[in-house]
Design a protein that fits this description.
- With 295 residues, the chain is an alpha+beta fold.
- Helices cover 26% and strands 37% of the residues.
- The strands form three sheets. The protein has an eight-stranded antiparallel β-sheet.
- Strand 4 and strand 5 form a beta hairpin.
- The longest helix has 21 residues.
Amino acid sequence: MSKVTAARYGKDNIRLYKVHRDEATQTHTVIEMTVCVLLEGEIETSYTRADNSVVVATDTMKNTTYIVAKENPVTPPELFASILGSHFIETYKHIHVAHIKVVVHRWTRISVDGKPHPHSFFRDGEEKRIVEADVVEGKGIEIRSGISDLLVLKSTGSAFHGFVRNDFTTLPEVWDRILSTSVEAAWRWQTFSGLDKIRADVAKFDATWTAAREITMKTFAEDDSPSVQNTMYKMSEQILATEPGVQMVDYSLPNKHYFEIDLSWHHGLKNTGKDAEVYAPQSDPNGLIKCTVSR
């Protein structure tokens, strides 16, 4: 006999924007995010018996997200995700797990004549702040924070040599190369007992995100990198050292390759090795390096 062994459902791609207006300074602060809500619980009969009496409509989840955003702070996103997830667990007794994912999109304040403008912003790249909160009835709140789509490049200070060579290998060893990647980094927190603990530690979330971002970029820039693997490990151990509440750090770094172009066919024009100045950016295939570092 067949049975449902796992099930979750919800609303994805809920677009949300909130503005805070400081009447005293006439300054606006804005945040834009995309939210995903997935619920688990006693919902098997909706699959096996077409019993919709156990279904919280996904449109209701969308509406709830907007109302919770109106009635509560949306920053830091770890707090908002935890409040939203807890709402579903507390409101619907047959729902026992709420998975909330929040993607925060960048809006940076515009400076005009050297002064920050009170209500104008620009999108300075596709970098995103990511939060995933799993609110589990009776067990607490699991939070994973992160950075996504942070595109970085350095034109020197990277090498790759000493790797396995055999009759399948054509890649030459290099002692100096361009290194570029789109950073995907995340850190998992110790389990929080509930919303009260989240609120008590709320200052840590922004501080750790800022520190992780700075560590990532500083290490990327300054490390005389022998490999992406070694550099990402150095980043991870620094994040763990910065915040005791973080239990695990993971990175996923795709190589964005830039290949030298041999132009010697054109009147002996030198453009390889130490003479290389013009490169061809590559889209694929690309290297992809991942690691998880834990305490």
